[in-house]
Design goal:
Layout (H helix, E strand, L loop, with lengths): L2 H11 L6 E6 L3 E6 L7 H5 L6 E5 L2 E5 L4 H9 L5 H8 L3 H7 L2 H36 L4 E3 L5 E3 L11 H14 L1 H15 L1 H12 L4 H10 L3 H4 L9 E6 L2 E6 L8 H20 L5 H42 L1 H18 L3 H14 L5 H21 L4 H17 L3 H8 L6 H17 L3 E2 L13 E2 L1 H22 L4 H13 L3 H7 L3 H14 L1 H10 L16 E5 L4 E4 L7 H4 L5 E7 L3 E3 L4 E6 L5 E6 L4 E5 L12 E3 L6 E2 L4 E5 L1 H6 L6 E5 L5 E6 L2 E3 L4 E7 L1
Antiparallel strand pairs: 1-2, 2-4, 3-4, 5-6, 7-8, 9-10, 11-24, 12-13, 12-23, 13-21, 14-20, 15-16, 15-19, 16-17, 17-21, 18-20, 22-24
Length: 707
Amino acid sequence: MNNSQMGEKILEGLGGAENISHFTHCATRLRVTPKSNSAVDRTKIENIPGVLSIIEQSGQTQVVLGDKVESVYNEMLKLPGMGAVGESATKGAVATDEKKAGVLTRVFDVLSDSFRPILWALLGTSMILTLIVFLQQLGYFGQYTDLTGQVVNVDIVNGPRLADADAAAAMLNEWRAAFPFWFIMLAASLSVLQFMPVMIGATAAKRLGANMWVGAAIPAALMTGTFQGFADIAVDGVVRVPFLGLDLPLYVMNYTGQIFPPLFAAALLAPLERFLKKVIPTMLHMVFVPMLSVMILVPLTAFLIGPIGIRFALAISDFIGGVNESMPWLVGGLIAGLYLFMVPLGLHWPLNAVMINNLQTDGVDFIQSPMGAYNFAVFGVVTGVAIVARRNKELRQTATGAAVSGLLGGISEPSLYGIVLRYKRVFPLILVPAIIGGATISALGVKSYAFAFTSLLSIPAMQPSHLYMIGLAIAFFGAMAGVLVFGYESKDQKAEAAAVAETGIGESAAEATTPGAAEKRTEAVAATAAAAPVAVAEKQDAAPWAAEEAAAPAAGTVLTMASPLEGQAVPLSETPDPIFAAEKLGKGAAIVPTGNTVVAPAAGKVSVTMPSGHAVGLKLDNGVELLIHVGIDTVNLNGEGFDVKVTKGQRVAPGDILLTFDPEVIKNAGYSLVTPVLVTNTNRFAEVEGATGAVQPGSELLKVTTK
């Protein structure tokens, strides 16, 4: 079956072109957003030769094809009805697909993709605010007598609490004169929070396919001194504006730190830009499209969208806050318990928006503090696994690393994808202490004063800190004790571990004894073998390079592959992705990177580069075909943090730089850095073995034995 035939069969299984609202691909999978999930025939797709697996995730159907994905994708674009779908996916007209997709999927995707680019800056500046709050708590800035007659610590964040406004202003100036450096740091810490509308306007506009700087200009207009000057002539916050014979009410509001007005404005900007580009000649686009967009949307946002956005945010916050006032334990327990299910599905982003809005509007937030109970329950579980898993050295290392990154950095994804989703027996061991800890934190009235990933280092951001630590201790030690008492493995996993202990041949051998595993492995190999003729044909197409390729080595020859990246090599089975971990795309190894540069491990040519920059494929002169996939699900970053240095078809020598990446961008977006290095034509070799331990470019990573 060739690529065209395979594409036809896959499209039939997906319910036809009329059932596809969004269609794209990453390095190994077709990523499809169907209009109707019920119209997708999973069994039919899985039975197509060459299809390795099918995954349903966050409303998206992922068809795993391995290194054939680009060829099949291109063939599918040629099929009847797929032209418009492919054009919208490849040319970036995101808004067209968003319009067709489900409402909830659209909202969560846009929220997620709008916040992720600024998380790095937001978290960094918020940690500065956490430091200032911590110093205030220690009394570093001194003390003063407030309006109640109590002697309290100086609070440079919120200013002095005095009954006389003039006296408060004078005292605040005294503090500025006494601590100028820390007021500069305070300005740094509040920069992202206060100018959030400009940043969100840019990222949301880009996500929806509009010009990001026009998206930033719209909310920025409402934050200028010119617009805010209307407050001086407003009556009860309203200015009457005559327009075309109408007397329009202009509600003068403070847009500093607001989230929803720029999001709503960007949602209108995208279709407006597309309309203007259709009716305005191309040569005039640069001037008149942004000019008319701003002229239309700034007044529309000022009169309508802005007030609606602010009131929408206040309505959500007031509703949750109202429940929190009467039953804080209920809010805390629900937030801490539901987060386990919300994070993998991306449903936590709306709560993040409300949290940021609360911090900017009220200076404090009541949602983030009980969320810490969820994180610490997860960290408690992986700490327990690290203690209990004495016989499984690799699992113990994974759990230890996840616990350290969580407790110090507040990053829960290594724990979630490396341990929790792998051993689902721990779900109740997380939920019970998380709910109790979250309920305790909220019942004790703990609130957050900065947006930060909940970790040991961010404890000062939650006040009162000593009460917050009570809830964290309940969550962490309760979850850890649960693992120590009840364990983390299911019955099947215990039997598997026992087989490993008896044979001493490792997890992969035990997996072969698990019911159904051998059949699945055989199916995967058969599927890959079925694709071999196409791979051979593709290799023959590369005739211009044939003279530069080495002669085929004799059977039994051991080829050594150098590592393309500096880091810690781990077994592929520890990759937090079921397809990579099950070796369905080929055998190899995974690297937890400590460097940020991917180099060619041997001479060959580049066979695949991705628009998102997260992966590169190589056809080496020795016959090995490699896929280097930086991180897991990093295709969703749309190229952010990646810089590809090569092009498809380019010759490379050992050590040539293929791409660079920013680990912080990947981590802050919530994705795993684990980098699979796969031999995608594994079926052509007798054996592929991966190294473990510290590696760097030039050191041995893989041993490939020829047939």
